[in-house]
Amino acid sequence: MDEEYDVIVLGTGLKECILSGLLSVDGLKVLHMDRNEYYGGESTSLNLIQLWKRFRGSDKPPAQLGPSRDYNVDMIPKFMMANGTLVRTLIHTDVTKYLSFKAVDGSYVFNKGKIHKVPATDMEALKSPLMGLFEKRRARKFFIYVQNYDESDPKTHEGLDLTRVTTKEFISKFGLDDNTVDFIGHALALHRDDRYLNEPALDTVKRIKLYEESLARFQGGSPYIYPLYGLGELPQAFARLSAVYGGTYMLNKLECKVEFDMEGKACGVTSEGETARCKKVVCDPSYLPNKVRKVGKVARAIAIMSHPIPNTDESHSAQVILPQKQLGRKSDMYLFCCSYSHNVAPKGKFIAFVSTEAETDRPEVELKPGIDLLGPVDELFFETYDIYEPVNEPSLDNCFISTSYDATTHFESTVMDVLSMYTMITGKTLDLSVDLSAASAAEE
To answer: In the Cβ-directed half-sphere of 353, how many Cα atoms lie within 13 Å?
Structure first.
């Protein structure tokens, strides 16, 4: 291996594969290695036998669950906003030609012990049982303001400077009650906790607009889309893209060790006695444990069921957000459900996930409010994993380390991490102002 690469990427998680694809398209010479023999790293999808092996050791899955190969169970379950950054990245790189997507049926919020559809427009607000009559009128005014808001047109601001006004002050101008604020902040703007209330309102307004634009793209029941056969398809699609542009892939490379020069800068990777040289290293936290710190933990339950989540209008795929305040917690809980309609389970089977940022060491107890909403389950698995973030200075050591995947069931935070790493590596900002109508060909 006496070639020199611009970048060596370690790990085939989704973040690493997207970066590898983007850098290859930019003309950089990329070598991509993984100690595993499969694509996807932490964000892989497992068939039934692999799932059993991971959670139940030597046990065999029961025959009544159907063929193992019909299952694609995501280890990091997330939907994509139809108008969001990940979809724009897929279109920008033309990766859409390797994938097929289908809209997600429903988007819901847990409020006062019940599941409700999330109203996202002034018309939906008027029909929603989440609010009384007067509250509906106030909410309608709020949604009309957000729909009309244009950052570059002061006439639409009605005298408010959203870069200075906090979200709390902004929302109070419409007189909305705490329950309404709760679902707007958590189920539409997709904030993970209540810190956003004291931050400038512009971010929240942009997030709600993204939700509405995503919803409008499919005229469906939710703003989300999801790939057929699960998320394991995404890393492989970006790997294909990288290969088309000259990237080299090596799986099953044991003990990938990053080498540093006298100045402490990454200069290569050694595996099986051979060293490949490079100028920069990109990796997930597991490859450079001494350059990351633990910042939290995710608790997750995976359920195999023979029915959709109750009270979600028989949706074959859905997200339910349980805002922290409704549960007396510090952070939100998320329900994610997909099924045979997205080719991730045999006919008649549904896969549901309940996830949250762990606040205790007892996932079974902590996830109970979400699990209670699932109805009867055929099988239930629990896991927790640590979240790490980098503490190094990439300009000093040439190491670009991704942050672990969070508990959210949508991709916005994941892609922001990738794009900031891309900018640090290349000095460029990726232009994602693409024509989204061009993507329709790739969607079902």
So the answer is: 24
Q: Helix or strand or coil: residue 145?
A: helix
How many C-beta neighbours within 10 Å does residue 175 have?
14
Residue 441 has pLDDT above 50, yes or no: no
Percentages of the chain per state (helix, strand, coil), in multiples of 5: 40, 25, 35
> What distance in Å separates the CA atoms of residue 148 and residue 142, rounded to the nearest whole number?
10
pLDDT for position 41: 79
Q: Contact at 8 Å (CB) between 201 and 13?
A: no
Strand 292-305 with 350-357, pairing: antiparallel
β partners of residue 74:
45
Instruction: Name the pTM for this structure.
Output: 0.90
Cβ–Cβ < 8 Å for 335, 357: no
DSSP 198-253: GSBHHHHHHHHHHHHHHHHHHTSSSSEEEETT-TTHHHHHHHHHHHHTT-EEE-S-
What pLDDT score was predicted for residue 443?
44
**With left for phi above 0 and alpha for psi between -120 and 50, is residue 310 left, alpha or beta?**
beta
Query: Which helix (H) or strand (E) covers residue 368, if one does?
Result: helix 368-371
**Model pLDDT for residues 181-217, shown as the tens digit of each residue:** 988 999 999 998 899 999 999 999 999 999 988 988 8
User: Of 314, 322, 324, nearest to 350 (Cα)?
Assistant: 314
- Name the token pair of 331: 């952070």
Residue 173, CA atoms < 13 Å, CB-side half-sphere: 17
Q: Which domains does the chain have, with CATH numbers?
A: 4-43+232-293+389-429 (3.50.50.60), 49-105+294-387 (3.30.519.10), 118-218 (1.10.405.10)
Please, which residues have CB within 8 angstroms of residue 220's CB and are 6 or more apart in sequence? 103, 104, 105
328's CB contacts (< 8 A; 6+ apart) are none
Estimate to the nearest angstrom the gap between the alpha carbon of 331 and the chain centroid.
Answer: 16
- Tokens at residue 356, please? 């949250």
The amino acid at residue 149 is Y
DSSP, residue by residue, 266-295: EEEEEETTEEEEEEEEEE-GGG-GGGEEEE
Q: What angle do CA 175, 179, 180 make, to 5 degrees?
A: 55
